[in-house]
């Protein structure tokens, strides 16, 4: 129990807000040393408890969400269910660790593979929620994360667990060579990553971009005060912007209501365009009629030309479960009749970069930025610049907005694209392909970022081949399980 608790402490210290470099490479060693001495039941419940404690630290911002009056208590229930949901994945990991710790192959192949498969499953589908993936612990050591260009994010997780397993196995069996191999992998990854940071894609073209951060807090219901603040904020930003860029980026939910139905929203945009003849990308709610009496709602990004016309749009493809919709609502429309304070949006079905001059924008709306596969798909379709628009005012002053921003940084490294991020209340930023934050506006500040952003070409191995390490992990896990089953049958005979 003490060793598992020590692993939990090391694991917590590996992630924000602490982010102690290299701790993640030894965080699981104490747990590995203890796992062989406990039952499967204890392995599940101890890891479940540890995962629940860790998740509480990182997702308690759920309590800050604004919901209709009368159902605030459901937020507490939602937090409990979220913690239990995430804790269950850690419990399954505990069982997998216990099963794999019986042999050398289990320690060094099955355990890393099991982690990858469970982490991938947690990020998949309508219920996917890859908050705090293992690779986030490399936030303050982005040199090592450069290998994600080849291995992909799940491959990075595999290597982190492999290093932990090698060190633990070396201690358990008193074979220093295994522990030394784990240390050698860390050194090699560090030097390989340093080399890769100097090997970014080149560019001959760029886009002059301005990011508007109005710092207007969201309200659940229409509020005249919000419009007063909105007009004042955008008027100030409009005056602060001296030159006319190619593209001005507003945040998600940048203006209250539906842009297509709002005179006030169009007035804000018109005032900006009169002063700066630029393209504008903004986030808004949108609708589409299916029949004369039925319409669907979407979380959208509109591309507006210098003349004020909406010339293209993108609908958010991965919605926040239980926040923007009830999962599977598109397949079972009757779910829309269940009211838990969620929006009734539907997910978009298409990935398609938006064209602005020579730029092809891969748009990531809100928490789409935490899904590696979405950014990868956009770049596969020709995006030469990633643009993340979000409204993180709902998080309040919790750890949530910072982690949301941190997770977006990894998308730049994997795809070797610049990332332009516009957040309504912060954090807005421009991030380079090696993960360097070139410019940033912190939370709850009004301001603009202006920059000439390179448009990069070329595809990384990960962009071309995707999550190949997930498939390799699945193959290794199947082979190991099949081998053990045959071995038991022979032994039983």
Would you mind describing this structure in some detail?
The protein has helices at 2-14, 29-35, 40-59, 73-100, 104-122, 142-145, 148-172, 176-197, 224-240, 263-275, 372-380, 400-415, 461-465, 468-492; strands at residues 205-213, 247-249, 279-289, 295-304, 310-315, 354-356, 359-365, 385-390, 419-423, 428-431, 437-441, 447-455. The protein is an alpha/beta fold and 493 residues long. The chain folds into two domains: 2-199 and 466-492, no CATH class; 205-457, 4-Layer Sandwich (Nitrilase/N-carbamoyl-D-aminoacid amidohydrolase), CATH 3.60.110. The strands form two sheets. A six-stranded mixed sheet has the order 5-4-3-2-1-12. The longest helix has 28 residues, at 73-100. The two termini are 37 Å apart.
């Amino acid at each position: 129990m003490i060793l598992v608790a020590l692993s939990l402490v090391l694991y917590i210290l590996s992630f924000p807000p602490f982010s102690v470099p290299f701790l993640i490479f030894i965080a699981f060693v104490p747990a590995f040393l203890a796992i062989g001495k406990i039952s499967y039941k204890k392995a599940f419940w101890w890891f479940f408890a540890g995962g629940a404690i860790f998740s509480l630290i990182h997702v308690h911002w759920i309590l800050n969400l604004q919901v209709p009056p009368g159902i605030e208590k459901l937020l507490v229930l939602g937090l409990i269910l979220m913690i239990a949901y995430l804790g269950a994945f850690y419990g399954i990991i505990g069982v997998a660790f216990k099963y794999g710790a019986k042999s050398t192959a289990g320690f060094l192949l099955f355990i890393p593979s099991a982690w990858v498969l469970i982490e991938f499953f947690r990020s998949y589908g309508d219920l996917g929620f890859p908050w705090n993936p293992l690779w986030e612990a490399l936030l303050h050591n982005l040199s090592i994360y450069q290998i994600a260009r080849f291995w992909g994010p799940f491959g990075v997780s595999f290597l982190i667990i492999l290093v932990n397993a090698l060190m633990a196995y070396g201690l358990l069996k008193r074979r220093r060579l295994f522990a030394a191999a784990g240390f050698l992998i860390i050194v090699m990854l560090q030097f390989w990553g340093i080399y890769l940071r100097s090997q970014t894609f080149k560019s001959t073209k760029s886009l002059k971009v301005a990011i508007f951060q109005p710092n207007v807090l969201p309200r659940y219901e229409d509020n005249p005060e919000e419009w007063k603040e909105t007009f004042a904020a955008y008027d100030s930003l409009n005056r602060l912007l001296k030159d006319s860029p190619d593209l001005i980026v507003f945040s998600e939910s940048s203006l209250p209501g539906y842009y297509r139905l709002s005179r006030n929203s169009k007035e804000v945009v018109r005032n900006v365009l009169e002063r700066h003849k630029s393209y504008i990308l903004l986030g808004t709610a949108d609708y589409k009629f299916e029949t004369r009496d039925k319409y669907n709602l979407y979380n959208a990004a509109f591309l507006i030309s210098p003349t004020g016309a909406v010339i293209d749009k993108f609908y958010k493809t991965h919605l926040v479960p239980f926040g923007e919709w009830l999962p599977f609502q598109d397949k079972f429309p009757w779910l829309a009749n269940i009211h838990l304070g969620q929006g009734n949006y539907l997910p978009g079905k298409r990935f398609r970069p938006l064209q602005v001059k020579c730029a092809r924008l891969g748009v990531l709306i809100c928490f789409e930025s935490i899904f590696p596969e979405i950014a990868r798909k956009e770049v596969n379709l020709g995006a030469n610049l990633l643009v993340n628009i979000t409204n993180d005012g709902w998080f309040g002053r919790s750890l949530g907005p910072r982690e949301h921003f941190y997770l977006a940084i990894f998308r730049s490294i994997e795809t070797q694209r610049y990332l332009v991020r516009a957040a309504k209340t912060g954090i807005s930023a421009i991030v380079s392909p090696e993960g360097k934050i070139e410019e940033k506006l912190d939370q709850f500040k009004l301001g603009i970022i202006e920059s000439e952003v390179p448009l990069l070409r070329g595809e990384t191995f990960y962009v071309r081949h995707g999550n190949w390490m997930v498939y390799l992990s699945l193959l290794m896990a199947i082979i190991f399980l099949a081998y053990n089953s045959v071995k038991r049958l022979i032994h039983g005979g």
